[in-house]
Specification:
This protein is an all-alpha fold. It has nine helices and no strands.
Length: 186
């Protein structure tokens, strides 16, 4: 293990201990009272602030916001550890397995032509392999907590993958009228 890796592990351990101390009986009452629902709001805020930092081009702002985002992730992990649900090691192992599974052109024997094919393979793997674990409709993988416009865009993109995509708006109206006729007939 490199010296850099050891330094990262030391800092990660220290940060987890800070969170555990904050959540302990001798720690902070406010931190002990936090719930997953509370942290969900902060997680979204921190993710948006991280995006703003990226857009600003400020390296120091990005470093700070990534730290805030990481803190929320680790805080949620400590809460799960307290409940005996999972550990940080479980989280890291699961994402490592997922990234290997989603990159067969790197970790397997699959070949790809271009980025478009990589993206298509990613979606196929997600749909065909991972969605089998919990069958769902094409819109079920879209987070309900996304801001409305982003959610609508993702829903439109998903619908387009199964034929709900038109170049002209009058064609959309014809489809809506067709569906209404079918509903009335039913």
């Amino acid at each position: 293990m490199t010296e850099t890796s050891l330094h990262v592990l030391k800092n990660l351990h220290e940060l987890m201990e800070i969170i555990r101390t904050l959540r302990s009986p001798a720690g902070c009452l406010w931190d002990r009272q936090q719930t997953r629902a509370d942290l969900a709001k902060y997680l979204l805020d921190e993710a948006c602030e991280t995006i703003d930092a990226i857009d600003s081009g400020s390296v120091s702002a990005l470093k700070e916001e990534l730290g805030d985002l990481l803190f929320q992730i680790l805080f949620l992990t400590v809460m799960a550890e307290e409940q005996g649900e999972f550990t940080l090691s479980d989280v890291m192992a699961a994402i490592g397995e997922k990234m290997i599974r989603r990159h067969p052109h790197v970790f397997g024997d699959s070949t790809v032509r271009d980025v478009a094919q990589i993206k298509a393979n990613w979606q196929t793997i997600k749909r065909d392999i991972e969605m089998k674990r919990s069958p769902a409709g094409i819109l079920d993988g879209i987070p309900r907590s996304l801001p409305a416009l982003i959610r609508a865009q993702k829903m439109t993109e998903a619908a387009a993958t199964v034929g709900f995509d038109w170049e002209r708006t009058d064609a959309v109206m014809l489809k809506v009228e067709e569906e209404l006729r079918e509903l009335r007939a039913a």
